[in-house]
Amino acid sequence: RQAQFRKLRDTPAVTKDGERVALNINAGLMVDLPHLHEAGADGIGLFRTELQFLVASAMPRLSEQRAFYSQVLDQAKGKPVTFRTLDVGGDKVLPYLAHDKEENPALGWRAIRIALDRPALLRYQFRALLQAASGRHLRLMFPMVAEVSEFEAARAMLDRELTRLDKVGQARPASLEVGSMLEVPSLAWQLDALLPMVDFISIGSNDLLQFFFASDRGNTRVGDRYDLLSPAVLSFFRHVVARCRAHDVPISLCGEMAGRPLEAMTLVALGFRKLSIPPAAVGPVKAMILELDAADLSAFLGDKLDRPDRTLRPLLTDYARERG
Ligand code: PEP
Ligand code: MG
User: Fold this and answer.
1) How far from 202 is each of 134, 164, 293, 323, CA to CA, in Å?
2) Closest ligand to Cα 253
3) ipTM of model
4) Which atom of ligand 1 is the closest one to the Cα of 46?
5) Whose CA is nearest to atom 4 of ligand 1?
6) What is the C-alpha separation between 229 and 293, in angstroms, rounded?
7) At what angle do helices 205-212 and 231-247 cross, to 10 degrees?
8) Is there an atom of ligand 1 within 6 Å of 134 CB?
9) Cβ proximity of 84 and 61 under 8 Å
């Protein structure tokens, strides 16, 4: 099977009914970069910038951050990279950043919340990213946005950094796209306000599902209790996809669930045309997509999302099995 996946490396992921699905990878360190090309992925859909901070013993300096991002862009060789700004806090604690002990770290002072409270951190990260991407394409997104105002505040900081570039006579990125992650359920009910402001949305299914079911993603006792292929989750996704379509904003999904072929199959049927998955999942997911009739599965799903079943997994498993 490994050899079969390798043969598919240069084959684009297109369903039987002609839908092109972009398969990106999740990454965060230089060692991940070769996988981008080996797996034949379309780009990096989630670059977790906090990993550079987590492996360092002191806050990486501006010059270190800039050199790192610049290397990432060099090695991506023109394939798009979506940098996610710092997602620390929660389970990803920086020893050199003072923080209080929290009762519920996943719900606590983390990600964009820290970035907005300690603006110097985000400002330097923007500066490093903008300098690294000078004259190149830059894609950025913010983690854990729960309210539109948080996106606006971060975006305003980015705009100030862009103006600063002009003042010091440095070239801006050749093009810039700024998006938001959707991993806090509240944001799904603000889409008509948010979508006009963003260039793209990326669902972070790991956190989203932990908040959706109030079920700790790291606790094995409850982690497998709820199924992602439940009508509750899938109809939530259907709502988000419909709003994004209405506003003509591209949507992708990153997170572990999209790396499993049955889950990926279901997401494509719901209208996702962009997934970001672990590198090892690119082959298996691509093989599935080449065999999938997306419109047929959408029709099969029909009103099943509105039924009270606990999960549609058995139905979807049978569907996949009957079609090879
Ligand atoms: C997610 O929450 O789904 C996600 C992609 O981000 P992380 O796993 O880094 O929290
Ligand atoms: Mg997350």
Assistant:
1) 24, 28, 24, 30
2) 1
3) 0.98
4) 5
5) 204
6) 19
7) 120
8) no
9) no
CB 44 within 8 A of CB 25: yes
Could you tell me the pTM of the whole model?
A: 0.96
Best of 26, 46, 208, 215 for a ligand 1 pocket test (most atoms within 8 Å of beta carbon): 46
Query: The tokens of 4 are what?
Result: 């079969």
Ligand 2 centroid vs 167 CA: distance in angstroms? 35
Gap from CA of 46 to ligand 1 centroid (Å) = 9
Minimal-distance CA residue to ligand 1 atom 9: 48
Both structure tokens of 33: 């970069």
CB 274 within 8 A of CB 24: yes
- Residue pLDDT, tens place only, 126-146: 999 999 999 999 999 999 999
- For ligand 1, whether the C-beta of 42 sits within 6 Å is no
The Cα–Cα gap between 191 and 296 comes to 28
Question: CA angle at residue 244 from 239 to 249, to 5 degrees?
Answer: 165
Burial of 120 (0-12, 13-18, 19+ CB in 10 A): exposed
